[in-house]
Predict the 3D structure of the following.
Amino acid sequence: MRITCPCCGLRMVEEFVIMGDADLVNRPETGADYEYTYLRTNPAGRHRELWYHEQGCRSWLVVERDTTTHEIFSTELVNKGAS
Amino acid sequence: MTSSRLTAGGLIDRARPLNFTFDGNSYDGFAGDTLASALLANGVRMMGRSFKYHRPRGVISAGAEEPNALMTIGTGADADPNTRATVQEVYAGLTASSQNHVGSLKHDLMAVNDMLNRFLGAGFYYKTFMWPAKFWEAVYEPIIRRAAGLGALSGEADPAEYEHGVRHCDLLVIGAGPAGLMAALTAGRAGARVVLADEDFTMGGRLNGESDQVGDMPGSAWARQAVAELAAMANVTLLPRTTVFGAYDGGVYGALERVSEHIAKPKDALPRQCMWKIVARRAVLAAGAIERSIAFDNNDRPGVMLAGSVRTYLNRYAVAPGHRAVVFTNNDDGWRTARDLRAAGADVVAMVDSRPGPLKDHGFRVIRGGAVADTVGRHGVDHATLRHHSGTEDSVVADLIAVSGGWSPAVHLTCHQGAKPLWRDDIAAFVPGPNLPPGMSVAGAANGDYSTAACLKAGAEAAIAALDLTTGPEIPHAEDGPTEITPFWKVEGCKRAWVDQQNDVTVKDITLAHQEGFKSVEHMKRYTTLGMATDQGKTANVPAIALMAALTGRSIEETGTTVFRPPYTPVPIGAFGGRHRGKHFHPTRLTPSHDWAAAHGGDFIESGLWLRTQWFRKSGEKGWRDSVDREVITTRSKVGICDVTTLGKIDVQGTDAGAFLDRVYQNAFSTLKVGRCRYGLMLRDDGIVMDDGTCARFADDHYVMTTTTAQAGPAMRHLEFCRQCLWPDLDVQLISTTEQWAQYAVAGPHSRDLLRKLVDKDHDISNEAYPYMACGEVTVCGDVPARLFRLSFSGELAYEIAVPCRYGHDLFDVLMKAGAEFGVEPYGLEALGVMRVEKGHAAGNELDGRTTAGDLGMGRLGSKKQGDYIGKTMAGREGLLAADRAVMMGFRPKDPNAQLTAGAHFIDQTAEPRMSNDLGWMSSVAWSPELQSYIGLGFIKNGEVRMGETVRAWDGVRGTDIEVEITSPHFIDPEGERLRG
Amino acid sequence: MADFELKPRSVFDAIGGCRVAAEGVTFDEAAPRTLLSLAARKGQADALRSAVAKAFDLDLPDAGQMVMAKGITALWSGPDQWFLSAEGDAHLAKTAKVVADMASVTDQSDGYTALTLAGPRAPDVLMRMSSLDFNEEAFPAGSVARTSMQQISAMIARTGDGPDYLINTPRSTARDFAHDIKVAITAVLARG
């Protein structure tokens, strides 16, 4: 699998670390609750996931991909304010 | 033995004769020969014994699909088993040996299995060896495993080197036959970056094995010319001897290049194989097609070969695999073999076509609507039984039976991402289906286009389409013969007729599988083991599917194929490992004073990727405990130095740095004074402790955090997650400085005295100016910048001093020299561990991903803190606050010399050792030289209430059961007077 | 003069350096330089760019780029983050002053070992070290990439058309990195 890092371009998946469901960025204002901590969407199919470009620019990315085919639809920085 | 080498022709280099051995006998061959062609040239037909029945077997093909001619190449640790003789190039001094026989190849004692075949059919081991049950593992299985099989591993480490590499291209062309060469020429001339990979050592594919013309020259000459043109293009990379074995997502292909397996004495630095990842924008699969056989009785004898492979031996290797040949076909292609055999001077005894048709004069005997029904011969065919359309049979003398049951496109790579091939009745073959791997197209015989003209055209068109070109090169004129076929899978009434020769699966086995209900192809495969050998049924799968379809009355399309998965041909595990083996399995991180430690008796241990010093051996010490005891005693009574460079260090800067740390630590950091450190506990959002360490404030907007060695990477990832994903509005910047600073703990009553000799005079490090938990920037040894932290992991008066890594080695050396007057000694990880257990500091064994701050006795750290932080809410869950949770306590054995063990469970004095009586567990143990006793840290229910009570530390794994007293975890200096001194 | 002296050491001092000079490819440790990380404070990226441009006559490069001007090399290292290198310590002090309040500055001079790889066969060597495309068009002079090579982090820049490459790699694994490069060079040369 290859992922297009918005900063670094197309890179092999080995440079990245996955952390699953991108909803994890929506931490409740009042602190983590049971749903946030334990309940994750994990579909067989199209999914928005968090990936960390650890062996690259250290950006956290939201990658939308099909978990059954590894087809990637979009990749963007979580922190869009950065450049 | 008679030579079967033709006097002229072929692509072998007759000017370069070579000598090699097979089973100890010496033979001659030529450069350009494979092991199989050279053996055939020497009249050697029998090349191995079959998997189960130990029947004599010869080579049936001339390529990677070969099921029979598997050999061990080389000897000793270099021996490589199960190498296909059809792929292995001959070189001077090559040593090959046959496999799977007891005694000699000709007189294999296990051949008795063939006579027992009635009992050894498909699934025999499920039925035959039922009783007594315990005999299966002890007796039957080992015997069966020894009797059946392939070549053996040497049992020694593989001395070969394997390389990894990555190539990028616009177009990957897989296969260098007519379609592949034409695709590469088209793309190459258009200026695209092309990689052309072919499993053969001479590119050209079928063009090298046929006698047809391309343009105005022999096909092989055209191929040579095309390869030469491609080789001259800077934008084209040719990878011969390279099998593209897998099509992965994202346009990545796995390819295995055999770099030096064809060289007699390769240079040391040359790897055996190179595993390439080929990243291709587009790919053209031009992998050709694989011929299949027809099932008739005893069709596995040496001398029965695939018709197309016979042509390859004739035309490419100038070898006549037989002198009296029967050709048996169900399609037009087989006739070409009869033509070429005759041209080479062989006697075509009969041309048997299963299709009825008019009889014309071909200059040899022709049987239409007939079949080869059986073969005879001990170590190879000497007679064939021919069956006529009428059903009558006659026997002819023949030493070669060339069989063509049609061709199967090599669709394997098209299926690696889940696509299913489609059945085409007109060519009786599976062709690539829809949903090809993105970016891949298929051309030539792999797509079911068999004529040379069609292949050349399809190759050019595939490249034009893949690269969006407007035109392509002119396509040379070539053979465009008919390829009609009428399916004919087995001869009526045959029984011991082989379908999968490598795994010894016959028509009878498939019938049996059907009878017993294993009708789906996937079930048939697993019940009969068809297609599960190293050749993965390349010649066997399609006939087997057809036979099962006939038995079930379904169409072949409905029956379907089993799933094709990578690799296409076997790949050694070593090739996947590449250079990452032994000491280089992973990179090793060395601290700046590693060489110093190595030169001063340091023994190292892996700690993550780091090498850390466990202890420093001194002469006269009998074991590691002597060294560690000495190091602990010296540090506690004088002064010791320990390399703590490996701790993770993270620079946290920005106007919101303090606010950020408040949210990631359980305790507050915005309130920390500049010039001070604080211990911090980091939780996960589920309330469990993630990591701990100290954090020092160097300026209002600048903190330096330390993490444990093990968690340095994960902590950085977590903090970046918090920064980028959770609180992007905070002004905070993070960068790891672990690699920048060499850091040393200087611990013991004389630590300040020692540092005073090194810290430049303008920095006051007196107890008043630099109290416990102070930190700051100083200079040492004349203006070398340093950071000084007054921290203590040992519980003694202690500091950590950090200098830029370039000075690390010398700083260790200087600390030792300056400290000589105080009796300084270096100490290692083990002594550090002893002292932290004595002091009751939690470490990795305690922060095991299950413990809360409360369990560690640090619940109060965050109890009064305002605002949210990671882990706050979930840490308040009832279960995590329960009064009877196991909490960290100290443990002392009643007998001080009773050796405690980490992992022991606590039970009450009179309780039975079972889970319902479990009170907790021991997490860390040490021998305390100061207390002259073993001590331990562990977790026990109601620990604080039970302080002073006695329980048992029961360790069922190591067989110990020791009475221990529950104590405070702080064994030494519980009030912390030493570290504040 | 202090009683005790600390001499700076390269990771390769104790093993006799790491230089390889062969037909078509040379590899060596680069002369040490001051290396600073600059990370823009929140919302200060533009101000930082102008301050650096004014002080050093250098435009901080965009993603994947590097620039060299008047002895200073600036490498893009992440969103709103750069590595600046120069000879000597003066650079360190001046940069810190120029960008104060606009960027977090961290000394990384000792955190990385700088290596040079050059020559027409260098791309063949890199092909065995990295999954990146080092083709002229994909990675022309002035390109920079943070990546991993043989499991080790690396920041690689193409500094010239030799082609010449500058690789910054963490100090603790620099010996293994050099070992891997040497093995790759030897294997490339063995192929002829």
Q: What stands out?
A: The radius of gyration of chain B is 38 Å. Chain B touches chain A at residues 166, 248-252, 277, 279, 417-418, 438, 685-686, 713, 717, 720-721, 724-726, 728, 868, 870-874 (CB under 8 Å). DSSP finds 24 helices and 49 strands in chain B.
